[in-house]
Design brief:
This protein is α+β, with helices and mostly antiparallel strands and 214 residues long. Helix content is 27%, strand content 37%. It contains five helices and nine strands, in the order H-H-H-E-E-E-E-E-E-E-E-E-H-H. It has a nine-stranded antiparallel sheet, sandwiched between helices. A hairpin with a 4-residue loop joins strand 8 and strand 9.
Length: 214
């Protein structure tokens, strides 16, 4: 079973460790209206992609419960696997008190070799559901034992880059949002190395047509 990405685990853990009710009641999440619309459309389309992914396939489901501080068993997480090849197609966290309401969703798209070509994610805070707290489009590239991973949010902002060596996914380098542009503008930085070109040579620097889940 493919585990949750580490960056998502870290975010969820940070929320879980905080006194959710107290913090959210005093500090509402600020999101501009354009982003609210973009990210809600992104999430709606992501759920439609999930439905298309599982249609016509034999699906094996696995479930577990998830909690936050002060919110025990807040969601029911369902992982949807292709029963014929074992691949994780999607994972959805459903609120237990509102069984038709999505708390978090991930969808995986594979290439002809069975590797993740792109994956999508959106998740909400337990309260203030005017828009997802985070959205992501992850594009993957594989070449000569290198794995490049480039991430964008639902507005198209490039937020993360990571390069590993296969087969054990040994980390070569990673760049967070605030360092990507700086690295590109700095001669001699990692963005100007052959390793960078090998990892990301096959990936665009924008999400392009993949900004909306497909």
């Amino acid at each position: 079973m493919r585990k949750l990405p580490m960056w998502l685990l870290a975010i969820i853990a940070a929320v879980a460790m905080a006194p959710v009710g107290a913090q959210e009641s005093s500090r509402p999440v600020q999101v501009n209206e354009q982003k609210v619309q973009q990210w809600n459309v992104f999430t709606d389309n992501l759920y439609r992609l999930h439905q298309r992914q599982i249609e016509g396939r034999r699906i094996r489901e696995a479930e577990r419960l998830g909690s936050y501080a002060g919110l025990p068993d807040f969601y029911r997480e369902v992982s949807y696997h292709d029963a014929d090849n074992g691949r994780l197609l999607s994972r959805i966290q459903w609120e237990r008190k509102n069984p038709d309401r999505i708390h978090g969703i991930e969808v995986y798209i594979y290439d002809a070799a069975g590797r993740v070509a792109r994956d999508y994610m959106a998740w909400y805070l337990p309260h203030y559901r005017n828009a997802p707290r985070q959205t992501a489009v992850n594009l993957h590239s594989y070449a000569d034992g290198w794995h490049g991973w480039r991430q964008f949010d639902g507005s198209g902002v490039r937020t993360y880059e990571k390069c590993t060596r296969l087969p054990d996914e040994k980390l070569v380098f990673e760049l967070a949002e605030e360092r990507i542009e700086q690295a590109e503008e700095t001669p001699g930085s990692v963005a100007h190395t052959q390793d960078y070109k090998r990892c990301f040579g096959g990936l665009e620097k924008t999400a392009g047509k993949f900004l909306q889940p497909q």
